[in-house]
Amino acid sequence: MADGYRGLFGAFPYALRHGDSRVFKLYVLVGTLGTVFIGGLFLLSLVVWIGETSGAPGGSLTLSRTFIAVMGLFAAGPLLAPILLVARKHRRGFSYHPRYDTIMALLGVGFLVSIYVAAIISMPECFELDGSTVCRDPPSGPFGPVVGVLYALPQIAAISPPVIMMAAMAAGHYLLSR
């Protein structure tokens, strides 16, 4: 392979070495750490869910376990996409937009922020924890009004920010690679 590019795991140091901008090189670190963190959260949630449902027969529980794993891939995968796309661009010597690396890195950061926004939207008002009811605090601080609006949205709306950012990443790659 060309200059140390050895598949998925070799793409990260390759992209870090050959990236055209400092913003992208910083994103390689941030995106990788974000992917490891989010992947770890989903892995832990899967382990907890399997532990809580281990005595129950298969069927819908098996489907819900698979759903957690697939959602983890949908959350972590797009964080890796800018890194892998830029590594592919440099490895194959494609001629893209001069700011392709920087724009893809910023879109990756936007996707990371969209996951956080989705987590805010999907947070229930109250939930049970160890037999007691825990309720979220009312929003305060400089972002209090924004968080209040996000809390007011229905929980199903939490899927919108990541989907919109995934579409923006795909459109950005398509338009900048022409």
UniProtKB/TrEMBL annotation:
Keywords linked to the UniProt accession: Membrane, Transmembrane, Transmembrane helix
Signal peptide region: none
Residue span, DUF8056 domain: 1-176
Top-level taxon of origin: Archaea
Residues spanning the membrane: 26-51, 63-87, 99-123, 143-176
Pfam family, one: DUF8056
Protein name: DUF8056 domain-containing protein
